[in-house]
Design a protein that fits this description.
483 residues; alpha+beta; Immunoglobulin-like; Rossmann fold; 3 domains; 6-stranded mixed beta sheet; 5-stranded antiparallel beta sheet; 29% helix
């Protein structure tokens, strides 16, 4: 009888793992291991960027991506002895999980640009072009005041301690980091929406944390109604020139009211116009709606992070809290390749951030945001015609808006340096290339060439003298855990 029951269970899990989930977004279930646990997590599969001929496509245009969720989500799987589902891998988020030692912007700018050209370790006939971006560092004592609304999912699916319990710990840590003049409101949603705490000065930290401690889970999930209420409260307490931000914590399992990804994105696009940013924190295992949360963070002028452990709470809420303070919005990149020097190119990652070339100078087009001290990295794999340091290989154009402006500012950098061997490259480039290579392995990329775990580990292992908070070292340890 036990054997029959187990066979039926495995068959049901197999059925779930082969079926698209009931959502209007193209996403997939994932079956974990032999079948003891079934995941019904939702991801969007993007086809990898191919190599493009420069003579046919001299321009490459995309929005920056400041998220780190895909990397932390991968780490959850690896720590369980599994590889992540390929659909969950967004290579640019792996790379941008880490901070790089890029130069500070020049006086009068909020952004700096840098680049490097090196041999490609997994295909010696190719090169890697690394683009580096850094947001202006604002000293902590000069950061503007914050108006936060914590929007917390307390539906029944949030009951496990790795969901609501993790969020409660994280939000209390953020409260401890606030200045007395900052403000916090708490909105909760399950079958209905409630204001657990009206906007309260952070000087009343004990009162705010006591409200967080009262959170409990139960019921269905009316996510859209919660989002609407949170924006209303953020607007009522808006701080001119300040950090006005909603922080949504959820597994994304919205099932009451507006619940489709497209409809929620439309709602967020309407709400973002008032200068209020949206940070999305994903938690949990089994029903994580990664696709929905990544999309609403993208369209809500914010970022998406996955919280898988206590270290990640520290990273998001303490070590990198300055990222909550936006220094550049609607940030876009456009690369113009020189057909006399570059045969073809492939953008590694950013598949869901590509833009039309004509959108680069269109200030009405939404793009990504960059926080104080935040670094962004993009990598191209390129096939060169000639190695000639006197000629320009490509022009790196960048546009962004100041937080209080509707008009973009242009920056430009000529990429004409002599290509280096990967071993002679800067530590930042070697490390970024190693993490991108790890993403290609996790994705089982057709472009991975001779990549293997040893190559990834060797590159990373020689590249962590700059390692704020030890995250590069943790990455090296994670490589060794791969099944």
């Amino acid at each position: 009888m036990k054997t029959i029951t187990k066979v039926l269970a495995v068959c049901m899990i197999f059925f779930l793992s082969c079926t698209k989930v009931d959502d209007d977004s193209p996403s997939y279930s994932y079956e974990n291991g032999f079948g003891e646990i079934a995941y019904n997590e939702k991801y969007k599969e993007y086809e990898e960027n191919p190599f493009l001929k420069v003579k046919d496509y001299p321009l490459s245009t995309f929005s920056i991506d400041a998220d780190g969720a895909s990397y932390a989500n991968m780490r959850r799987y690896v720590n369980l002895g599994q590889k992540p589902p390929k659909e969950s891998v967004r290579t640019e988020e792996y790379v941008n999980y880490f901070t790089y030692n890029y130069p500070e912007p020049e006086a009068g700018e909020n952004i700096s640009l840098s680049s490097e050209l090196v041999t490609c370790p997994w295909n010696e006939e190719h090169h890697i072009m690394r683009l580096g971006i850094k947001g202006k560092t604002i000293p902590e004592e000069e950061l503007p005041n914050s108006n936060y609304v914590f929007l917390i999912d307390v539906s029944g699916s949030m009951t496990p301690p790795e969901k609501l319990g993790v969020l409660k710990t994280g939000f209390k840590q953020l409260v401890d980091e606030l200045e007395p003049e900052d403000r916090v409101a708490i909105v909760v949603y399950a079958g209905e929406v409630g204001v657990l705490l009206p906007s309260t000065p952070a000087s009343e930290a004990d009162h705010i944390k006591a409200a967080i401690d009262r959170l409990g889970a139960g019921g269905s999930t009316a996510g859209a109604a919660g989002i609407t209420t949170a924006y209303e409260i953020a607007r009522e307490n808006f701080i001119d020139g300040g950090n006005n931000r909603i922080i949504l914590g959820s597994d994304g399992d919205f099932n009451v009211g507006i619940s489709s990804t497209d409809a929620l994105v439309e709602l967020i696009e309407e709400k973002r116009k008032g200068g209020i940013y949206l940070t999305v924190l994903g938690v949990g295992t089994g029903n994580l709606n990664d696709y929905m949360m990544e999309q609403i963070a993208n369209k809500g002028n914010g970022n998406y992070e996955y919280i898988d452990n206590a270290d990640q709470i520290q990273k998001v809420f303490v070590h990198e809290k300055s990222k909550f303070h936006t220094v550049a919005k609607d940030a876009k990149i456009q690369i113009t390749f020189n057909p006399d020097r570059v045969e073809s190119y492939r953008l590694i990652g950013y598949e869901n951030r590509k833009m039309k070339d004509e959108d680069f100078e269109d200030d009405e087009k939404d793009a990504g945001e960059i926080g104080s001290s935040q670094t962004i990295t993009a990598l191209y794999e390129v096939i060169l015609k000639k190695n000639d340091a006197s000629a320009e290989y490509a022009k790196f154009d960048f546009r962004y808006k100041l937080p209080d402006s509707d008009s973009s500012r242009p920056l430009s950098l000529s990429i004409r340096q002599t290509p280096l061997s990967i071993n002679a490259a800067s530590e930042d480039t070697r490390f970024a290339v190693s993490v991108a290579g790890f993403g290609l392995l996790m994705r089982e990329s057709e472009y991975k060439g001779t990549l293997d775990q040893k190559m990834v580990k060797n590159l990373a292992g020689s590249s962590f003298s700059f390692d704020p908070n030890g995250y590069r070292k943790q990455f090296i340890e994670l490589i060794g855990k791969l099944p």
